[in-house]
Design goal:
This protein is an alpha+beta fold. 24% of the residues lie in helices and 42% in strands. It has 4 helices and 11 strands.
Length: 168
């Protein structure tokens, strides 16, 4: 009788263990990418991430001009110029990336002069660097565009565009 009780307890323990393992999907490993910005491109121009993943983007401006990066979809026009996205990826997801500027703290003032809305990291020319970190959420699933809208959208028109793809 005592032996049966032990066997039963063992089975219950095993069942609980299996239930715990089968529950939540494992958290994906964190990833990090370095994105070089030049005239007029992001390199690499496609970044892929998964829901739940911690993503670090190290942005480096290797160009002769100031550049920026925004994430969204549906182009916003202002005075017939591309000026940003109607749908900002981070706004939709309610996620605020942590941004660390490695050089050049003048960026804040410059940002205010621009008519952009939505999340943006601005980098002055010649070697400015920043790191942005965030966790991907389900609201981000799908394909988004990364773009630079400097010089009243000239950079965007010149093809300073990339893709940010989020899979479940
Ligand atoms: Cu640019």
């Amino acid at each position: 009788m005592k032996k049966m009780g032990f066997l039963f307890a063992s089975l219950v323990a095993l069942a609980l263990l299996l239930a715990a393992c089968g529950g939540a999907a494992p958290t994906p490993e964190p990833v990090s990418f370095t994105i070089d910005m030049t005239e007029y491109a992001f390199s690499p121009d496609t970044i892929e991430a998964k829901v739940g993943q911690r993503v670090t983007l190290h942005l480096v401006n290797r160009g002769q001009l100031a550049h920026e990066i925004m994430f969204g979809r549906d182009l916003m026009m202002m005075n017939n110029r591309p000026s940003g996205y109607q749908v900002d990826m981070f706004e939709v997801a309610g996620v605020e990336p942590e941004v660390t500027m490695m050089a050049d703290m003048e960026s804040a003032e410059q940002e205010e002069e621009e008519a952009h809305t939505g999340f943006m990291v601005f980098l002055n020319e010649n070697g400015s660097e920043a790191t942005m970190t965030f966790t991907v959420t389900e609201d981000m699933v799908g394909e988004w565009e990364m773009g630079c809208f400097e010089l009243e959208g000239v950079h965007y028109d010149q093809g300073m565009i990339g893709k940010f793809i989020v899979t479940p």
